[in-house]
Design a protein that fits this description.
The chain contains five helices and no strands. By secondary structure, the chain is mainly α. The longest helix has 16 residues. The model has no long low-confidence stretch (mean pLDDT 92).
Length: 75
Amino acid sequence: SRQTLYRKLKKETLIFQELVEDIRRDKALELIKDESLSLSEIAFLLGFSELSAFSRAFKRWTGESPSTYRQKLLS
């Protein structure tokens, strides 16, 4: 159950939202390498309701916008 998960995470001193954030970040860094995916598609795949929310999160994770990050990767 949900509460069992939270209890086990707490026992391990982990926070559910931090785990979600880590997984989203790792997946974003993986997906952004795929030129066939638009940034909007990546945002949707990661569960963001809007591209702007994804962009803010990505900038928090990397210090750069998703488009800038992608351009640097591909150049």
